[in-house]
Amino acid sequence: MPWVAVPYADEARRSRLNRLYGIQGIPTLIVLDSKGDMITRQGRVEVLNDIECREFPWHPKPVLELTDSNAVQLNEGPCLVLFVDSEDDGESEAAKQLIQPIAEKIIAKYKAKEEEAPLLFFVAGEDDMTDSLRDYTNLPEAAPLLTILDMSARAKYVMDVEEITPEIVEAFVSDFLADKLKPEPI
């Protein structure tokens, strides 16, 4: 490895880093800025998705399209997932644009408090991985379908409405953050 890495034999340093950055497995690639502040804990996923490093240093995007390679992030904590009918080419992009201002607002609010945002935001189209996620979480095939999935708590929150609007998303997120929603088991 031509880059700086912690030797596997250095258990004390690995243990401190595991606690500091919440590392739960290897390989893990965390990207830090020159001050030592974390840019992303998803460096490994980013390298796999951006082999030529065009988007380096991979600052987190407020809303991600759910893919096989980033689905691991669903295990990191609560995630808002907006399921859409991706056979309509523009629907995934429109869904991202709909939830992006809400995601940016939440991220900025917690960043100002020097805390990690309490939610990750995804748009999920129609593919085998999304079908597997729906099956695993016992979600209906409806689209659009607004959910918050908390895999570690084995809980889901579902808002099944005809039309998803920014107001509906914002109210759903606010109610979740205020513990006003009743979880369903996954």
Task: Give the % helix.
Answer: 25-40%
- How many β-strand runs? 8
What count of helical segments does DSSP give?
5
Which ranges are low-confidence, i.e. pLDDT below 50, for 5 or more consecutive residues? none
Strand order of the largest sheet: 3-5-4-6-7-8
Shape: globular
Oligomeric state of the chains?
single chain
Distance from N terminus to C terminus (CA atoms, Å) equals: 40 Å
Radius of gyration: 18 Å
**Helical/strand content category:** alpha/beta
Q: What value does the average pLDDT take? A: 90
Quote the beta fraction: 15-25%
The topology string of helices and strands comes to HEEHEEHEHEEHE
- Main β-sheet, in a few words? 6 strands, mixed
Pfam family, one: Thioredoxin_6
Protein name: Nucleoredoxin
Organism: Cyanistes caeruleus
GO molecular function: thioredoxin-disulfide reductase (NADPH) activity
Characterization of the model:
This protein is an alpha/beta fold and 186 residues long. It contains five helices and eight strands, in the order H-E-E-H-E-E-H-E-H-E-E-H-E. The protein is globular.
